[in-house]
Amino acid sequence: xxxxxxxxxxxxxxxxxxxxxxxxxxxxxxxxxxxxxxxxxxxxxxxxxxxxxxxxxxxxxxxxxxxxxxxxxxxxxxxxxxxxxxxxxxxxx
Length: 93
Ligand SMILES: [Zn+2]
Ligand SMILES: [Zn+2]
What we know:
InterPro entries: Znf_C2H2_sf, Znf_C2H2_type
Organism: Bemisia tabaci (Sweetpotato whitefly)
Keywords: Metal-binding, Zinc, Zinc-finger
GO molecular function: zinc ion binding
Oligomer: single chain
Protein name: C2H2-type domain-containing protein
Distance between the termini: 65 Å
Shape: globular
Bound molecules: zinc ion
């Protein structure tokens, strides 16, 4: 016997999530208002302060660099680290 019911089978009939919010500064598009506001707060117009220690990949968000390291470099050793350029000679005031 099965207690599980197939819920959400009608998901396919929903309209596709559209990118409703776009940044007026850099024209990026986001599906959620919270994502856009996070972009405005942490990314837009900001110098990318975090950099991968193995390559020149940079992002304003540390999580993006961590994700890049995992997906792009995989399980390398020694472990790549995220460099915080704020404390380097990057010229951020
Ligand atoms: Zn922007
Ligand atoms: Zn990298």
